[in-house]
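Below: protein 1.
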Amino acid sequence: MRSSSPRSRTGATRGGASWKPARLRTPLPEDLLTMEDQGVMTSAALSAVLKAVVARDYPGIPTEGRDKVAILQDVMDAHGWRPVLELGRALRALSSHPVLRALCAARTPLQTVERWSTLERFMHSRHRTRLVEHDLARARMTLRHVAIDGGRIRVVNDLFIWGVLIAILETAGFTGLKVSLASASGAAVVIHGGASRLAPRKLPAVTDVATFSWKPARRAPAPVSEASTKGATGQVRDRLQRLMVGDLLHSWTLVESAQRLALSRRTLQRALQEEGTTFSETLQRSRVDAAQGLLGDSSLTLTDVAFCTGFSDQAHFTRTFRRYNDVPPSALRELMRSAGSLRLSDGPARRGGGPATR
């Protein structure tokens, strides 16, 4: 069990903020550092926020040309573990970022963390967040931060990720958040919320397992205004698309969508059929339309776009996008860049007759 083995902190074992770090004799290769540290969220945006906050709050710590782990380690060496957790919470500055909005659209803390885990998989991160336990009645869950290759994770990475998850849950509107680590004595050491101000300067030996709790109020999904299903062609389809676009990462079903639209399942099916489409086709169109809109944002990677629009992986995104637009998303982005803006002759996605045919 990995939690009983030492954690890599530039030569230090786990536990405490009073240790003296030993420097690595041979610097880690740049590509290894990138693999270790850049696999969460949108790395460029998150790194920019991290470096800006460190430059502002800890001007004595250099940030230019350095990776996140090295910066976080220096912060912890000089100022203890609390600032590292708070640097993860600085992600709140990216509340308008499409990836963070997609994460925060989840309706429960568990769903939010599940989306985070999906993002880690999308980014092929060597570090993953795993659910250990979820107690709905007590509004709490326990998570473990693991290295999928069996390697070592530095304590600063644990703390930073716990801070990032706190930021995501706070941005999503969940309140009363408390995060604790287990100590050797069995007592919980609260590192955020609650009695966190009383937490010792020295961390427990295990930092890769954290328990999150929150106020058990459940956010209800926003109601969809009722409208007659009669009228112009496309009205029901358009209402359904507006519903889906509100959260493309949600696992939409025909039954739930009909309930949200104040329709029966059969009425929704029949209306879509009369408009020349189906439920699954409408969902795919919604994703492709949204993806095309995001492709114009050069700060987003294609992986970001695929994640934000609810595709299962990059291959699924490329395959589906090409069915509707004749070209893969990478090619359309290049056309957008070269032309400044590009609108397909028949709209964001073919509206009437299904996928494009060759």
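Below: protein 2.
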Amino acid sequence: MLAGLEPVAVLCEIVDDDGSMARLPRLRQFAQAENLKIISIADLIRYRRKRDRLVELAAAAPIPTMWGPFKAYCYRSLLDGIEHIAMVKGEIGDGRDILVRVHSECLTGDIFGSARCDCGKQLALAMKQIEASGRGVLVYLRGHEGRGIGLGHKLRAYNLQDDGRDTVEANEELGLPVDSREYGIGAQILRDLGVRTMKLMTNNPSKYVGLKGYGLAVAGRAPLLTPITMENKRYLETKRDKMGHVYGLDTNGHGLINKNNNSTTGSPSDGTSKA
């Protein structure tokens, strides 16, 4: 439809010689050999970003917080009407090397202080670090509860985790995606605020992909290293081992997480996932 042609297509997966999914370099070779046109998701995102506006600014107001004064910007999605908030500290007019956190909504962790995850502690740490930096942005994306599966499904997954599954296995047993979050709204909010290059506060490399396609450059990563407790230890291990989250450098936090087997008591002061 974007090309002005009939909306007809064929969907298939091209595999490499070893049976694995062919990656972009191999796909380019295949397309050249077969005289096929090829575009990437990033190409489509760039096209839509230039032509489609997915959010609108609804309101803005200064808010004093426990970390310091911020200015809150409420953005409304033009796709589903969900309202998101960006907390801005200081002057970010040049848009360069801005300290940024894109935080997914977690009602249980952010509001009620659930010890099952590190979400609430990451939110507080990000706000603290932005305040200390003197300037930065925290985008709070709603609709991301349970990595996109919703609150009810998240609680059902918790029951399965109590029966022995990890966070990935629980989602799969419920027939749900492991992570269905999409960061395009967050990227457009950042662009509207004037951010162009950022130091991204995250332990999740997949956020790079979700933001880069919208013309935002990631100049570096700032890890958010929060306390390891008896309640969240397995969750952090699963995010590291099965979802590619980064908790350290050479060992990716293996020693730090594992050494808490016998030392954690659930207190935030027991151990910190730093490496």
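The first helix runs from residue 24 to 33.
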